[in-house]
Lipoprotein (Arcicella rigui), 178 residues
Amino acid sequence: MNKNILPAYIAIIAVTFALPSCISNKKYRELDGSKMRLNESFKRSQLEVRDLRARTQTMTDQLATQEQKYESYMNEVRSIRSSYKQDSVRMQNLMSLVDLKVEEFTAYKIETQKKIFGYENEIVKLNTHIRKQDKVIQVLSFKIVKERKQFVAQKKEIINRYERKIKNLATIKSSNGV
């Protein structure tokens, strides 16, 4: 009889370790893959934010340079106006030229400000996207931890159940005198 129980013990232990977990490997790999894709998306978003910030800085620097040019043009206009009484015909020609430059600069300034506003809006959108991705990563991480804990608890319960059955079999065997 002892020879028959040993294979039964081995079979019970083998079945215990062969039972499927509460979360399949496929599901786990899907969740893990999803987490990795979210991390990659997050990294790409961070790079995009960095690039947009660099572009915004460049545009800001260009705007400052253009504002200096604008100030320079305005100084030139003041100078021309002071000599207006001396040479009115020449002054009117120069004034037309200066007004044209001021209009060009103003149009350029407005266009540049619109671009900066657009970049700032993109940065806000990307920051919002990054925060959402962070939340998704946190939720997925929490799910993985929770499912792992459930798996461990189920595995312990199965092992305990089979250990009790083995003890019961041993008790029955010893009470039968085998």
In short: The chain has a mean pLDDT of 83. The CA atoms of residues 128 and 150 lie 33 Å apart. The helical segments are 2-18, 25-82, 88-176.
